[in-house]
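This is your field. Have a critical look at both lines of this record:
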Amino acid sequence: MTDEQQQTPEKGQKVSERVAGLILDQISNGDLTPGQRLPGERQLAESLGVSRVSVRAALQKLKAQGFLEAVQGGGTRVISSAGDMDSPLTALLRTNSENLHDLAEIRGDLEVWAARKAAMNATEEDVQRLERVVAAMEKARGTDKAVEDINFHYALARATGSAVYVHIFDVIRDTLTSTLEYHKYRPVREFIDDQILTEQHRSVLEAIRTRNPDNAAKAMSSHLESVLKRYEAEKLRQAEASEGVDGASG
Protein backbone atom coordinates (compact mmCIF):
# COMPACT_ATOMS: atom_id res chain seq x y z
CA MET A 1 0.00 0.00 0.00
CA THR A 2 1.38 3.38 -0.99
CA ASP A 3 1.30 6.37 1.34
CA GLU A 4 -1.30 7.86 -1.04
CA GLN A 5 -3.68 5.04 -0.15
CA GLN A 6 -3.02 5.29 3.56
CA GLN A 7 -5.30 7.38 5.74
CA THR A 8 -4.05 9.81 8.33
CA PRO A 9 -5.30 8.58 11.71
CA GLU A 10 -6.41 12.03 12.74
CA LYS A 11 -9.08 12.83 10.16
CA GLY A 12 -9.06 9.94 7.73
CA GLN A 13 -7.54 12.11 5.02
CA LYS A 14 -5.47 10.77 2.20
CA VAL A 15 -1.85 11.87 2.38
CA SER A 16 -2.30 14.00 -0.74
CA GLU A 17 -5.22 15.81 0.92
CA ARG A 18 -3.09 16.52 3.95
CA VAL A 19 -0.29 17.87 1.73
CA ALA A 20 -2.78 20.02 -0.18
CA GLY A 21 -4.06 21.36 3.12
CA LEU A 22 -0.56 22.27 4.27
CA ILE A 23 0.19 24.13 1.04
CA LEU A 24 -3.16 25.91 1.20
CA ASP A 25 -2.36 26.96 4.76
CA GLN A 26 0.84 28.56 3.51
CA ILE A 27 -1.12 30.47 0.88
CA SER A 28 -3.74 31.52 3.41
CA ASN A 29 -1.25 32.82 5.97
CA GLY A 30 0.84 34.64 3.37
CA ASP A 31 3.93 32.41 3.44
CA LEU A 32 3.24 31.76 -0.24
CA THR A 33 2.23 34.91 -2.11
CA PRO A 34 0.62 35.46 -5.54
CA GLY A 35 3.06 34.64 -8.34
CA GLN A 36 5.54 32.86 -6.05
CA ARG A 37 6.97 29.56 -7.28
CA LEU A 38 6.73 26.49 -5.10
CA PRO A 39 9.72 24.24 -4.46
CA GLY A 40 10.02 21.26 -6.79
CA GLU A 41 8.13 18.03 -6.17
CA ARG A 42 11.23 16.27 -4.84
CA GLN A 43 11.99 19.06 -2.37
CA LEU A 44 8.38 19.24 -1.20
CA ALA A 45 8.24 15.48 -0.77
CA GLU A 46 11.43 15.43 1.29
CA SER A 47 10.41 18.37 3.49
CA LEU A 48 6.97 16.89 4.17
CA GLY A 49 8.13 13.30 4.52
CA VAL A 50 5.81 11.93 1.84
CA SER A 51 6.18 10.48 -1.64
CA ARG A 52 6.37 12.52 -4.83
CA VAL A 53 3.18 10.75 -5.91
CA SER A 54 1.34 12.34 -2.99
CA VAL A 55 2.85 15.74 -3.70
CA ARG A 56 1.90 15.51 -7.36
CA ALA A 57 -1.67 14.58 -6.48
CA ALA A 58 -1.87 17.47 -4.00
CA LEU A 59 -0.59 19.96 -6.58
CA GLN A 60 -3.05 18.73 -9.17
CA LYS A 61 -5.89 19.18 -6.69
CA LEU A 62 -4.87 22.75 -5.90
CA LYS A 63 -4.51 23.55 -9.60
CA ALA A 64 -8.01 22.25 -10.22
CA GLN A 65 -9.30 24.41 -7.36
CA GLY A 66 -7.67 27.50 -8.85
CA PHE A 67 -4.94 28.10 -6.27
CA LEU A 68 -1.93 27.02 -8.33
CA GLU A 69 -0.90 27.04 -11.97
CA ALA A 70 1.81 25.36 -13.99
CA VAL A 71 4.83 27.45 -14.99
CA GLN A 72 6.07 27.31 -18.56
CA GLY A 73 9.24 25.28 -18.59
CA GLY A 74 8.33 23.38 -15.43
CA GLY A 75 7.27 24.06 -11.89
CA THR A 76 4.22 25.44 -10.12
CA ARG A 77 3.32 28.83 -8.70
CA VAL A 78 0.55 30.47 -6.74
CA ILE A 79 -2.00 31.97 -9.10
CA SER A 80 -1.92 35.75 -9.36
CA SER A 81 -5.34 37.23 -10.07
CA ALA A 82 -3.56 40.26 -11.52
CA GLY A 83 -2.84 38.26 -14.63
CA ASP A 84 -6.56 38.03 -15.35
CA MET A 85 -7.41 41.58 -14.34
CA ASP A 86 -4.50 43.62 -15.59
CA SER A 87 -5.31 43.94 -19.27
CA PRO A 88 -8.92 45.24 -19.10
CA LEU A 89 -8.29 47.26 -15.95
CA THR A 90 -5.18 48.90 -17.38
CA ALA A 91 -7.09 49.73 -20.55
CA LEU A 92 -9.84 51.39 -18.53
CA LEU A 93 -7.34 53.51 -16.65
CA ARG A 94 -5.41 54.58 -19.71
CA THR A 95 -8.46 55.62 -21.70
CA ASN A 96 -10.30 57.55 -19.01
CA SER A 97 -8.72 59.64 -16.26
CA GLU A 98 -11.93 59.37 -14.24
CA ASN A 99 -11.24 55.66 -13.84
CA LEU A 100 -7.77 56.42 -12.52
CA HIS A 101 -9.32 58.83 -10.04
CA ASP A 102 -11.73 56.09 -8.92
CA LEU A 103 -8.84 53.70 -8.40
CA ALA A 104 -7.06 56.30 -6.26
CA GLU A 105 -10.18 56.69 -4.10
CA ILE A 106 -10.55 52.93 -3.73
CA ARG A 107 -6.89 52.67 -2.78
CA GLY A 108 -7.53 55.31 -0.14
CA ASP A 109 -10.01 53.10 1.66
CA LEU A 110 -7.97 49.93 1.25
CA GLU A 111 -4.51 51.24 2.06
CA VAL A 112 -5.52 53.28 5.08
CA TRP A 113 -6.84 50.00 6.50
CA ALA A 114 -3.62 48.28 5.43
CA ALA A 115 -1.39 50.88 7.10
CA ARG A 116 -3.29 50.51 10.35
CA LYS A 117 -3.08 46.73 10.14
CA ALA A 118 0.63 46.80 9.33
CA ALA A 119 1.33 48.94 12.41
CA MET A 120 -0.33 46.21 14.46
CA ASN A 121 1.10 43.12 12.74
CA ALA A 122 4.41 43.97 11.05
CA THR A 123 7.35 41.78 11.95
CA GLU A 124 10.88 43.12 12.30
CA GLU A 125 11.59 41.63 8.88
CA ASP A 126 8.63 43.56 7.45
CA VAL A 127 9.90 46.82 8.93
CA GLN A 128 13.39 46.21 7.56
CA ARG A 129 11.94 45.51 4.12
CA LEU A 130 10.00 48.79 4.21
CA GLU A 131 13.14 50.63 5.34
CA ARG A 132 15.10 49.24 2.38
CA VAL A 133 12.43 50.37 -0.05
CA VAL A 134 12.27 53.90 1.38
CA ALA A 135 16.07 54.11 1.21
CA ALA A 136 15.86 53.09 -2.45
CA MET A 137 13.17 55.71 -3.05
CA GLU A 138 15.47 58.41 -1.68
CA LYS A 139 18.08 57.53 -4.32
CA ALA A 140 15.67 56.94 -7.20
CA ARG A 141 14.51 59.61 -9.64
CA GLY A 142 11.62 59.90 -12.05
CA THR A 143 10.23 56.63 -13.33
CA ASP A 144 12.61 54.60 -11.14
CA LYS A 145 10.84 56.10 -8.15
CA ALA A 146 7.55 54.77 -9.52
CA VAL A 147 8.95 51.25 -9.25
CA GLU A 148 10.03 51.81 -5.65
CA ASP A 149 6.64 53.36 -4.90
CA ILE A 150 4.92 50.12 -5.91
CA ASN A 151 7.51 48.11 -3.98
CA PHE A 152 6.68 50.11 -0.85
CA HIS A 153 2.95 49.50 -1.10
CA TYR A 154 3.50 45.81 -1.81
CA ALA A 155 5.83 45.54 1.19
CA LEU A 156 3.13 47.27 3.21
CA ALA A 157 0.60 44.70 1.99
CA ARG A 158 2.84 41.89 3.21
CA ALA A 159 3.30 43.66 6.53
CA THR A 160 -0.44 43.54 7.21
CA GLY A 161 -0.17 39.81 7.77
CA SER A 162 -3.33 39.41 5.70
CA ALA A 163 -3.13 36.98 2.80
CA VAL A 164 -6.50 38.29 1.63
CA TYR A 165 -5.17 41.84 1.33
CA VAL A 166 -1.99 40.67 -0.41
CA HIS A 167 -4.14 39.00 -3.06
CA ILE A 168 -6.37 42.08 -3.39
CA PHE A 169 -3.35 44.34 -3.81
CA ASP A 170 -1.89 41.96 -6.35
CA VAL A 171 -4.93 42.57 -8.56
CA ILE A 172 -3.98 46.23 -8.97
CA ARG A 173 -0.21 46.05 -8.54
CA ASP A 174 0.73 45.58 -12.20
CA THR A 175 -1.89 48.13 -13.22
CA LEU A 176 -0.45 50.70 -10.84
CA THR A 177 3.04 49.99 -12.10
CA SER A 178 2.06 50.68 -15.69
CA THR A 179 0.16 53.89 -14.90
CA LEU A 180 2.26 55.49 -12.15
CA GLU A 181 5.16 56.14 -14.48
CA TYR A 182 3.08 58.52 -16.55
CA HIS A 183 0.42 59.82 -14.19
CA LYS A 184 2.58 60.48 -11.15
CA TYR A 185 6.15 60.86 -12.29
CA ARG A 186 5.98 62.63 -15.66
CA PRO A 187 3.38 65.35 -16.15
CA VAL A 188 2.62 65.99 -12.51
CA ARG A 189 6.12 66.20 -11.07
CA GLU A 190 5.67 69.98 -11.00
CA PHE A 191 2.96 69.52 -8.38
CA ILE A 192 5.03 67.65 -5.84
CA ASP A 193 8.73 67.36 -5.24
CA ASP A 194 10.33 63.92 -5.13
CA GLN A 195 11.50 64.58 -1.60
CA ILE A 196 7.96 65.32 -0.38
CA LEU A 197 6.76 62.06 -1.90
CA THR A 198 9.50 60.11 -0.15
CA GLU A 199 8.79 61.81 3.17
CA GLN A 200 5.12 60.79 2.93
CA HIS A 201 6.17 57.16 2.66
CA ARG A 202 8.69 57.60 5.46
CA SER A 203 5.92 58.94 7.72
CA VAL A 204 3.93 55.76 7.12
CA LEU A 205 7.06 53.70 7.84
CA GLU A 206 7.77 55.54 11.10
CA ALA A 207 4.24 54.95 12.34
CA ILE A 208 4.54 51.24 11.54
CA ARG A 209 7.97 51.03 13.19
CA THR A 210 6.62 52.65 16.37
CA ARG A 211 3.50 50.44 16.34
CA ASN A 212 1.10 53.38 16.13
CA PRO A 213 -1.95 52.31 14.06
CA ASP A 214 -3.68 55.71 14.25
CA ASN A 215 -0.62 57.58 13.01
CA ALA A 216 -0.07 55.01 10.27
CA ALA A 217 -3.64 55.45 9.06
CA LYS A 218 -3.35 59.25 9.15
CA ALA A 219 -0.02 59.22 7.30
CA MET A 220 -1.37 56.95 4.58
CA SER A 221 -4.55 59.00 4.28
CA SER A 222 -2.50 62.17 3.87
CA HIS A 223 -0.32 60.54 1.23
CA LEU A 224 -3.25 59.26 -0.82
CA GLU A 225 -5.09 62.58 -0.56
CA SER A 226 -2.08 64.19 -2.21
CA VAL A 227 -2.20 61.51 -4.90
CA LEU A 228 -5.83 62.41 -5.61
CA LYS A 229 -4.95 66.10 -5.80
CA ARG A 230 -2.22 65.33 -8.34
CA TYR A 231 -4.64 63.33 -10.45
CA GLU A 232 -7.14 66.21 -10.30
CA ALA A 233 -4.44 68.70 -11.25
CA GLU A 234 -3.40 66.52 -14.18
CA LYS A 235 -7.00 66.27 -15.32
CA LEU A 236 -7.30 70.07 -15.25
CA ARG A 237 -4.03 70.46 -17.14
CA GLN A 238 -5.18 68.07 -19.85
CA ALA A 239 -8.53 69.88 -20.15
CA GLU A 240 -6.81 73.23 -20.50
CA ALA A 241 -4.40 71.84 -23.07
CA SER A 242 -7.31 70.40 -25.05
CA GLU A 243 -9.15 73.73 -24.97
CA GLY A 244 -5.99 75.45 -26.17
CA VAL A 245 -5.70 73.13 -29.15
CA ASP A 246 -9.38 73.55 -30.04
CA GLY A 247 -9.07 77.31 -29.78
CA ALA A 248 -6.01 77.39 -31.99
CA SER A 249 -7.63 75.21 -34.61
CA GLY A 250 -10.74 77.39 -34.59
